[in-house]
Amino acid sequence: MDPDVLPAWVAEMDYAAPEPVIAALHDAVTSGQLGYPGYSTGVELALAYAGFAERHFGQPGLVRVIPVVDVTAGLRVALEVLSEPGPVVVPFPAYTPHHDIAQLTGRARADLVLDPEASSAVLDLDRLDHLFRSGARTLLLTQPHNPWGRVFSREELEGIRDVVCRHGGRVVSDEVHGPLRLPGLTHVSYLAIDGTSDHAVALVSASKAFNMAGLRCAQIVTTDSATMHRLINVPVARNDSWSTLGAVGTIAAYTECDEWLASLVARLAAQRTLLVGLLAEHLPEARMRPLEGTYLAWIDLRSYGHDDPAEVALTRGRVRVSPGQEFHPGLPGHIRLNIATSPDRLTEIIRRLATGIAPARDDPT
Hints:
Elements: E1 6-7, H1 19-30, H2 39-57, E2 64-68, H3 71-82, E3 88-92, H4 98-104, E4 109-113, H5 125-133, E5 138-142, H6 154-166, E6 170-174, E7 200-205, E8 218-222, H7 225-232, H8 244-256, H9 258-282, E9 287-288, E10 296-300, H10 309-317, E11 319-320, E12 322-323, E13 334-338, H11 343-357
Parallel strand pairs: 1-11, 3-4, 3-5, 5-6, 6-7
Antiparallel strand pairs: 2-8, 7-8, 9-10, 10-13, 12-13
């Protein structure tokens, strides 16, 4: 990237990782913990996540955890091991790696498309029911959602459960952004809904909430002993790459960083408030559904007349944001914007974005 371009696209925060994570990694390296992860590390990781989930989500501690290298790899393992043949329902817009994951496991993809004109990002349960009646066997759920920024309510998840159970289907729930629900909202794991344990798993990781994606350690979570048995008996070649240092950092994040996480969520809430004000001032025709979780805002800029406002913003404003068409091919006029930065930098990002795209109606070029 050119040095004069301000980045606001990649899904990592500008904030340093928590000090307990850094200290734990330092101790692990100096004591030579650079080999393969052992069985006891996996047990410690499971206990750490169980405690974290109980404290933060009110999820009972009776969870079973399988380490995996990252969330996307874990989704593949879950689909290949647990899901019946048949299409995988993917709500669109969707995190880009989710576009191809069904096909990589030998399954078709069935798109559940969000109406871009809707005032709130909700799943169309009637359409979901139709897709399952037409042969779909699995829903790939992402909650909190990337890029919508939605935190689904218990009632919404219960509605999803009812549709899935009606058709004997399965849910694979990507909950990597679970700790990043903003104030006033509660992340409810799909596994915390009654009647889900036998047909669902969740994928979690400390990577997003604690800014440590490069450490390569995520977890498949289940509350069902039969599901756990199926997962631990997969061939080693299917799941053999999670990192010892990733586990060390993750355990520290889950057990020692509650105060740091609370401070982060408050900071992101302030950034959200700032973003709303900046858009009103500099891009008043922009539309943004309420940002409820994650640090990624989904913004509709179609009123400014560009099919690809991200490209125009890069060329004219020298700011890089994620094009909406990366998340929903063919959808014009949207961007995804990372707000996990300083107030000054977010202000400059929006100023540059406006400089790039706002003159469109008066500038024929």
